[in-house]
Design brief:
alpha/beta; DNA N-6-adenine-methyltransferase; single chain; Dam_MeTrfase; six-stranded mixed β-sheet; about 150 residues; Rossmann fold; disordered N terminus; about 20% helix
């Protein structure tokens, strides 16, 4: 069995959202802005690139976020939560790291949908080596709801 070595190492912290997975959520939320994307993996026509640094931008409307999964992930989740307090809805695809400070400080304040099984990110033939969750902040979130997707 061939293994995508880049998928199972720390060569990158960018995990491209599976299109079919995004499409289902987009049908529900009608996203307006991808807050953390590159030209190659943007899911919305309006997006913030690494050069624009989405952490420094104002997030408005209905936002999609699949952030880098490295050490800065907590900064992205904090920004998502804080943006929801200013009126944005932010739907986040995250590793289900329920043992982390950022998970307890922010994710537990949103709607959490655990993903059944493991996602296949980007063009990978192999599933991710971690479980995922969708966390929703804002008016469209159901408070303290745990849903298996």
């Amino acid at each position: 069995m061939a293994i995508n070595n880049g998928l199972f190492t720390s060569n990158t912290d960018m995990w491209a959202t599976p299109q079919d997975f995004f499409d289902k959520l987009n049908a529900e939320f009608n996203f307006e802005l991808d807050v953390c994307a590159t030209e190659d993996n943007a899911k919305c026509s309006k997006y913030y690139s690494p050069e624009e640094d989405g952490l420094q931008q104002e997030w408005k409307g209905i936002c999609w976020m699949n952030p880098p999964y490295g050490r800065v992930i907590g900064d992205w989740v904090k920004k998502a939560y804080e943006s929801s307090l200013k009126g944005a809805t932010v739907v986040c695809l995250l590793p289900a790291r329920t043992d982390t400070k950022w998970w307890h400080d922010y994710c537990m304040k949103g709607e959490i949908r655990f993903v059944k099984g493991r996602l296949k990110f980007g063009e990978s033939k192999n599933s991710a080596p971690f479980p995922s969750a969708v966390v929703i902040f804002g008016d469209k979130a159901k408070t303290n709801t745990l849903i298996a997707m």
